[in-house]
Amino acid sequence: MAEMRRVIMTGFVFAMLLFASAAADHSSSASRSGLTRFEFAQAHMGTQFRIVLYAQNAEAAGRASTAAFDRIARLDATMSDYRETSELMMVCKPAAHQWVKVSDDLFRVLAMSQQFARRSEGAFDVTVGPVIRLWRRARRRNELPDARKLAAARRLVGYARLHLDASRQALRFDKSGMLIDLGGIAKGFAADAAIAVLKDQGITSALIAAGGDIVTSNAPPGSQGWTVAVGSLTPADEALMIHLRLANAAVSTSGDAEQFVEINGVRYSHIVDPRTGQALTGRRSATVVAPNGTTSDALATAASVLDPLRALRLIDRTEGTAAHIEQMQSDRIVTSESKRWPSIPQTLSR
Q1: Which residues are registered as beta bridge partners of 50?
Q2: How far apart are CA 134 and CA 148, in angstroms?
Q3: Which residues lie below 8 Å from residue 13, measured CB to CB, with a gap of 6+?
Q4: Burial annotation 289-322 (CB, 10 A radius, 16+ → b, else e)
Q5: Measured CA distances, 281 to 16, 110, 261, 328 (Å)
Q6: Closest among 320, 162, 166, 176 to 251, alpha carbons compared
Q7: Is the pLDDT of residue 341 over 80?
Q8: What is the value of pTM for the model shown?
Q9: Partner of 188 for a Cys bridge, out of 49, 228, 293, 347, CB 3.0 to 4.6 A?
């Protein structure tokens, strides 16, 4: 899962730098409201989760952040495909022969994953696990996957081969050897769960950044929203950065700015098209704003795989979402935006 989770690290860096620099602007308003700004960070799911929140005092902030990180850690132990002892890995093998009951969290994320798979016509597909593993090995060795092994892995991929039974809260596969990879949705799901924990702890103004999946609750005191910067395909050019102002919303960026490998002169992304089993080539980036992190994470992944026209149709059909897509063509960046993108609050502040 860690490979997929590193998709938007560049977006994470930009976002954290921006709202860190904005802290001073909010401090006086926070003081008047009786709230103080606190930041916490822990490593989970192959990346760093950072929590920024406003609380009455350090004790309340520490208690709430600890509860949120504990929730994230439990989800990591449930959904990791790197840990042989995770619930996900423990159920994959027997699920080829029988219905296997799973936890509430795992069933929920699988049910949502299947919805996104159907909506994207397979561009997002958590059954891509066997193919992902071959491409991870290829990146480590700097060589393309063996063609026969890749063909065999592709025969194990397909969301229609994963069956869920809500009455039994169970899953079953059509074939032995199928493997689920939740790397395109787990971080967003975990950030949503952590925001819910913070609210239960009485923290109503918070931001959680996981790589570059960012989920927000209410705006900071005295502000209309959390200011989040989204980088372009040329991250060194600050002028091309998009500055969003979000509250009770999420944003995810999927792209290959940092995670790729060049083999025989061809640049291969770490993002794999589940429909073909091939790693994407060329450069692209998809940023999706949505009501929650689960949706933004999954749709950003799908939008990276689909061609821009089909990606924007998917976004436009999904209520409450908007997208900005960049693609490198002949040494120039071509941008596309969904119909709702202009309605996303933006700011020129740095």
Answers
A1: 41, 209
A2: 11
A3: 231
A4: bbbbbbbbbbbbbbbbbbebeebbebbeebeebb
A5: 29, 28, 10, 11
A6: 320
A7: yes
A8: 0.90
A9: 293
